[in-house]
Design a protein that fits this description.
12 strands; three-stranded antiparallel β-sheet; 8 helices; Nucleotide Excision Repair Protein XPA (XPA-MBD), B Chain A; damaged DNA binding; four-stranded antiparallel β-sheet; DNA-bd_dom_put_sf; elongated
Length: 278
């Protein structure tokens, strides 16, 4: 009697979740017993009317699936845990094991909202959220070659000047065998050009001066090439087989008594010269 009273008092002290677990375990034991009886067709118990279906080591009894472990017992297969089981698992996690991770927020330069993650910030370290990003507009990309030509930048301006500009590498769309392209954020290239040249007017003036020098060099190169072509044409028309002219004076010497010298003339070209005899 005392044992029955103790059991009844313990049952009263059980929670709803513990009672539900006890009932589930009892039902599980009944299902397992029925499964064992059904798997032995020569069992003496003929009153069992339920059937068990076995497919790929999975036995289904009364809507519950069990996995045959091969070691003499069955394991219940569960799909989704109940809410009580989920809460029990969450409560079992100790608070000392969790480490809080601080989240850093940045302010968008366009709209002013705070964000924790964005494509432009992760790729180019440029504080603009994804909602304000305009890939075909002000946030477009520019190749390294175009940046150097349009903004008169050098390799050291892009790589060594602090802070070094970030870029992404893409395959060349014109020919896959060529080297990969380096794409920079257009806004950052413009800012770097203003840091170097001071203002947009100075940059435009420098570009004009360089363009004028380039045109002068182009004209000089053209004139030099034209002169070389003319010399080539003239040299091809000149007959190099003609011999050098040699004067032939013959006996045309004439003595001048007043100046005491002689004069003679060439019989072919009319050249005349004056000389003295010792």
């Amino acid at each position: 009697m005392n044992e029955k009273k103790a059991c009844s008092s313990k049952q009263k002290n059980l929670s709803d979740y513990q009672r539900r677990r006890i009932e589930e375990n009892r039902q599980k034991a009944i299902n397992l017993r029925q499964a064992r009886l059904l798997t032995h067709p020569y069992s003496s118990d003929k009153k069992q009317t339920e059937t068990a279906v076995s497919v790929n080591n999975v036995i289904k009894v009364s809507g519950t699936k069990y996995i045959d472990s091969g070691g003499g017992f069955l394991i219940e297969q569960r799909t989704n845990p109940t809410e009580d089981e989920t809460s029990e698992r969450l409560e079992s996690i100790q608070e000392s094991d969790t480490v809080p991770v601080p989240i850093e927020y940045d302010e968008c330069l366009e709209c002013g909202d705070r964000f924790a993650d964005s494509y432009l910030f992760n790729t180019f370290n440029y504080s603009v959220c994804d909602a304000c990003r305009e890939p075909d507009g002000q946030h477009s990309l520019i190749t390294r070659t175009e940046a150097k030509q349009q903004y008169l930048l050098k390799d050291c301006d892009l790589d060594r000047r602090e802070p070094a500009l970030k870029y992404i590498s893409r395959k060349n769309p014109h020919n896959v065998r060529w080297g990969e392209m380096k794409l920079y954020l257009h806004l950052q290239i413009e800012q770097r050009a203003l840091e170097i040249w001071g203002s947009e007017e100075k940059l435009m003036r420098e570009k004009e001066e360089r363009e004028e020098k380039r045109e002068i060099l182009k004209v000089k190169k053209y004139n030099k090439r034209l002169k070389e072509l003319r010399m080539d044409v003239r040299s091809s028309l000149y007959d190099k087989t003609v011999q050098v002219h040699v004067h032939s004076f013959g006996d045309s010497e004439v003595y001048n008594e007043v100046e005491d010298n002689y004069t003679r003339s060439c019989e072919f070209c009319g050249y005349s010269e004056t000389f003295e005899k010792m």
